[in-house]
Amino acid sequence: MTRPPARLLRALLATCLLVLLPGCATAEPDPLVVLGPWTGKEGEAFEEALRSLDDGTGREYTYEGTRSLRETLLSQMEADDPPDVAILNSIGELTEYARRDRLRPLVGEAADRAYPPWAPALLVDSRARRYWVPLKIDLKSLVWSGKDAPRDDPEWCVGLASQATSGWPGTDWIEDILLHQEGPEFYESWATGRRDWRDPAVRRAWTTWSRLLGDRTPASVQHSLTTSYEGESGTGGPRGLLDSPGFDCTHEHQSAFVRYLYAGDEVRVEPAARYLGGRPEYADAYEVAGDMAAVFSDDPGAQELVERLSGRAGRQRWRAEADPAVRPLFPDTADHPPGPAADPVERRIHELLTEDARTLCFDASDVMPPALRDAFHRAVLEFFRHPSQSRLDTLLGQLETVRLRMDEDYRGDRSFRPPEDICASPGG
Prior knowledge:
Elements: H1 6-20, E1 32-36, H2 40-53, E2 61-65, H3 69-78, E3 85-88, H4 91-99, H5 108-112, E4 122-124, E5 127-129, E6 132-139, E7 142-146, E8 156-157, H6 168-182, H7 184-191, H8 200-213, H9 218-225, E9 233-234, E10 237-238, E11 251-253, E12 267-271, E13 285-295, H10 300-309, H11 312-321, H12 344-356, E14 359-362, H13 364-367, H14 370-385, H15 389-411, E15 416-417, E16 423-424
Parallel strand pairs: 1-2, 1-3, 8-11, 13-14
Antiparallel strand pairs: 3-13, 4-5, 4-15, 6-13, 7-11, 7-12, 9-10, 14-16
Organism: Streptomyces ruber
Protein name: Alpha-glucoside ABC transporter substrate-binding protein
Signal peptide: 1-27
């Protein structure tokens, strides 16, 4: 016999109390639980925004922030006690949850805000449905440097370690190179599992990355493999790779979210295209990422919460609560211009998203099924450690084997098709 989930037990207990206690007409509903990736100042700002949303709806919201998001969510689902709403950055994971009927399709205005490329439709039982909505986004195709750093002949900072998914800064490199060398159409078909990993164009992206990084000593390789993008901590906390004494480098390829590590008037941020050996016609294509909200419960309040969080009022509250360095970017960026207190970096990122970008493509590894994504992360670390052609042949062959296994799995499920449209214009 399976154990009833904890939230059901609480509801039954509340019902019993109503019967036993005279004078009680109704029981207050449990707080809606939101599981998300933000901790520290980011988590505090989001929690304050949630708190301010409780303004007459009769519901309270509890936020659980964790850096081990996937592990936490899986353990909660195994206990049959998932959160009401979870915020994830992986389309591949969300696709798997939808396929296993753990997500609820979005309804109302939230479904209308499922902007591409962050929230492609899924085909379930011959019906196109939207299962998540982007709350916060990031621009990835960026290069950071000190204001006085030379623009040519960069020495690249590389920190490949991370708490949850070691290797993703390397996959970001390869994805960005492939996007700018081969264009959005090729990138989209590769990211969604419709291209062989041994394709010469894919191989060229890996070898271009190795060539750009140049020769590295065993000590520098080990240092990169054991240091995260936050670099080495000083008295004030993390200071970024550009400012870490253990790195002798001038440029960093990294997403917009690292602006919290650097003072906005001390760094320069540029489009990555000019550094990647790509084609001029693809210079206005940018890789992006996002944090998407999905509903895991049948409680109507969960749908309402996602609708309110993704609306203009919810975004304004969130933005108002956040410190400038962690102020969120939103998918409809043009409707949320930087305020008068914005620093030059925030203004430049907004300009790139609203004026320079013509095509946005979602982070490829975050589109892939979790098994393929994790294999990609591991392969990047191995190639960085041993960048030989024979090693690359082996790694690409292994990745192709995983891709074929994932493809066979999906082809065997005729009721479901994963997303294929992960590139779109900024306006959707």
